[in-house]
Amino acid sequence: MKIGILFGGKSAEHEVSCISANSIYNNIDTDKYEVYLIGITKEGKFRHFTGSPDMMLDCSWESAVSDSRVDILGNENPAGIYGTDMSVELDCIFPVLHGPYGEDGRLQGILDYSGIPYVGCKMMSSALCMDKIYTKQILNAEDVRQSRYVVVKKNHDTEDVRGALEGFTYPLFVKPANMGSSVGITKVKNYNELENAIKTAFRYDTKLLIEEGVDAREIEVSVLGNQDDIIVSTPGEIIINDDFYDYETKYVKSTSKLQIPAEITKEQIKEIKEIAEKSYRALECTGLSRVDFFIDRKDGSVILNEINTMPGFTKISMYPKLMEHDGVSYKQLITKLIELSFEQL
Ligand SMILES: Nc1ncnc2c1ncn2[C@@H]1O[C@H](COP(=O)(O)OP(=O)(O)O)[C@@H](O)[C@H]1O
Ligand SMILES: [Mg+2]
Q1: What's the topology of domain 128-146+215-343?
Q2: Fewer CB atoms < 10 Å away: N or C end of the chain?
Q3: Could you give the maximum distance between any two Cα atoms of the chain, in Å?
Q4: Does ligand 1 come within 6 angstroms of the Cβ of 104?
């Protein structure tokens, strides 16, 4: 079976995607799958990459792409790679993309159009989970506890925002509605810092949210399956020795560590697993998602933070590590995800 791994992409999480995709390439079951690497440049061009996979790690891969045409829309040919010396129809696409244009439903819509099976959430669930405001609205309707927030759009009135924030306790977190990897997020300690934080978030999106900060432990679970058969992993914790889990802490410094399983109470584990499954169903996720929680240090309450439909996916990332803890190896996980994509047709 021929699998196309899509990586890179137009978002600020381009680099992270290349590293996750490299890890999948190195661990996929080659007895079952023949892999074709398709890189998406930062400008959004799809290219068949034929160089050494190590070049994905430092993003030098763009200098070793072939000039074959990658047809993902499946307009004239079935989705595949077509060149003078090769013509490959793909059986399945594994999009390993994070953030806008890759994880937010736009690419999923194109793949739906071409009719090719692909790993992960479909268009609508991808879009809803990417947008932190819609995620909140849908899950509020399901009575899932989340942190309090205010929505701010371009051309907002500063006084209105100030009024809406009355009663909120600092610190606050200002976030672009659609981003990931903490890009554009600022922790704000007092009102004077708010304006700059809003400006920063608007560099990445046209709407943002301001959330009340929770003094929290960060707990995550992996969810695997389509809507009829859902597995929720044991929760893990990210121990952050920093102000918050920002981009630097995630990828540059190695000050945070994963604690698997998380050392929390049986009741908290049960509650987290139930909320994760309920949220996954409500947002109609398929394939996989990592559901992220806060546990309030003051009273131990469980608060849902966000759902990532394409979580970090290197061999040592939280999502695969949690599945591995529960008995699904990284290689088996990749196979399972590909198999799940065929069930969705
Ligand atoms: N309401 C909050 N209270 C406390 N910490 C928060 C809050 N919102 C975000 N954070 C911190 O910022 C990090 C990134 O925020 P998150 O909403 O998960 O965005 P992203 O999609 O970029 O990962 C979180 O992992 C956490 O460390
Ligand atoms: Mg997050």
Answers
A1: D-amino Acid Aminotransferase; Chain A, domain 1 (3.30.470)
A2: C
A3: 66
A4: no
Count the residues in the chain: 345
C-alpha 279/C-alpha 10 separation (Å) is 28
- Boundaries of every domain in the chain: 2-118, 128-146+215-343, 149-212
Question: Which ligand is closest to the CA of 238, given by its number?
Answer: 1
**Which of the listed residues 103, 179, 182 should we mutate to test ligand 1's pocket, taking the one with most ligand atoms within 8 A of CB?**
182
The CB of 249 under 6 Å from ligand 1? The reply is no
Contact status, residue 272 vs residue 307, Cβ threshold 8 Å: no
Class of domain 2-118: alpha beta
pLDDT of residue 33: 98
Q: Which ligand is closest to the CA of 103, given by its number?
A: 1
Q: Atom 24 in ligand 1: which residue has the minimum CA distance? A: 245
What is the sign of the dihedral through the CA atoms of 258, 260, 266 and 269?
Answer: positive
10-residue block means of pLDDT along the chain (345 residues)?
96 92 97 96 93 93 88 84 90 95 95 94 97 97 97 89 92 94 92 94 95 96 95 96 80 83 98 98 97 97 97 94 98 98 84
Q: 149-212, which class in CATH?
A: alpha beta
